[in-house]
User: Fold propionyl-CoA carboxylase from Bosea vaviloviae.
Amino acid sequence: MFTKILIANRGEIACRVIKTARRMGIKTVAVYSDADRDALHVEMADEAVHIGPPEASKSYLVIEKIIDACKATGAQAVHPGYGFLSEREAFAQALKDNGIVFIGPNPGAIAAMGDKIESKKAAAAANVSTVPGHLGIIESPEHAVTIADAIGYPVMIKASAGGGGKGMRIAHSAGEVAEGFARAKSEAASSFGDDRVFVEKFIVDPRHIEIQVLGDKHGNVIYLGERECSIQRRNQKVVEEAPSPLLDEATRRKMGEQAVALAKAVNYDSAGTVEFVAGQDKSFYFLEMNTRLQVEHPVTEMITGIDLVEQMIRVAYGEKLALTQDEVKLNGWAVESRVYAEDPTRGFLPSTGRLVTYRPPVEGPDGDAMVRNDTGVFEGGEISIYYDPMIAKLVTHAPTREAAIEAQARALDAFAIEGIRHNIPFVSALMHHPRWIAGELSTGFIAEEFPEGFSLPAPAGEIALRMAAIAIACDHKLNQRKRHVSAQMEGWRKVAFERTRVVVLGGERFEGQVSEQGEAVVIGFGSRSLAVVSDWRPGEPVWRGTLDGVAVAAQVRSILNGFSLGHAGAYANAHVHTPREAQLAALMPTKVAADTGKFLLCPMPGVVKAISVTVGQEVKAGEALCMVEAMKMENVLLAEKDATIAKILAKQGDSLAVDAVIIEFK
Assistant:
């Protein structure tokens, strides 16, 4: 077995590979850019090599620097993770030419499947179901429109060398094809150095289902079940699960056998994923093959008990697969939420900055469930503008889908992050969404269920009652602490704390009577009472305890006269008063937010790529004003209404912070 391997990646996946290598007794080498000098993967590895500036094109994507790092440290093999160089045939070949083992498929397999156009031709030759489309090179927007007209709308415009949602657009008309073609080519060129795109039929109401395959260098290939990845935003997966609630055993076997046939046709010899677009009737068509470890691989590991990173290392070393297809068993259900540094209330725009608080849920057993958190960050660390905004992958595994979802919801409630915006409120809301719980999924789920964007749900019903009880319990704990402050002035009578508490929560009013019964704080809301037990201490960002014996977690942050709470996908400020305080608080004036309607504000930290207007120009609603690039995505900012440009306060190349003024309107 290898004694030392280098991980040509960063963040969460680098840490993930290091964990398995450490368990196998293999030493690890990390590489890092200037921006990652203090990163977690650098700290975890046995050795670390600096490879250049923050820009990936000058560090993580430079093949020669990776090879030099291997030679300097004596690393015998390289695990590429996902992204960066993981699917570059030239990288695998360069390592081979230098006597270094690539922990991934052979260069020929990468070449065959890495090009999305050629991979579809290979799939068709292997009798794999394929989507109707044009697989030739498209030279111009006009050519793309002609092809789309022939195929029929809607169509998908996709980068040939693409992945991760980059260089991908859905078009419903000729105009959208022309615009999507330009954006897809531009993103493909900047992300992959290859601006070729192709067009194919977009399946209406589709589901994204993928098959995990595993092959060795002795001709053996097996499949490890499927993953449902239909919950997507901008073609980027957000929530994944395994198995899929759509498939039956017969369809699973058929998809698996086609995936294996394709893998064998290209002599595939590592972990890889064959992605399919599936109809609600269980029909399915080949989408692409990812010749690397997928971001969402943990859900497959949880239901199969197979460590895919370990298998990749063993296969790369030349070992045969230890499992046959008949020995692969699927156990229970796993759900994964991708925790991103982005603001779901502002169109999911990226957020950067320092992680002032980072307290993930405890990994390990949670009743019948299991919690796993794959991450590459730490409290006090920084989310950089240069790389993918992923913070962590939160995974729960349980005997049933319902139990796995419930465990995921509890774990999200116990996940505290402050200092940046993040999408935990959104994925928390998803876990409680009736359509998600019912398994009625499609890749259009988010667009269909949140057509006006996402706003923080207000607490209601039982959720609101729970949050009110938690707020009162926290306030009671603070009062208990106040009673024990030393050197207090003694008055003519002992202070008697008010036992009635009024909670104003999201516009609702709850009045609770507080009493103590042993270790429990009993809160009576009229005819309903809740026994609250918790060892929460003031200042802790997560409240954990039980309400009438049911385990509950909530995110808690102190505010003036109360707490900011997050629980079960609902978020609100809970102001806790005595009855007299509540009367007085109701008389206080409400602060009105400033009007920013005359300004175009930068919605995320990013770089201005283009200004599309001039001073004095009249613009119509929907017209492009400028383009801002952030975390490898190009974001075109549009006029919300008809207006005239009064001032332009930014220029191409400027780095802007959130809410920086770009344009002022008359």
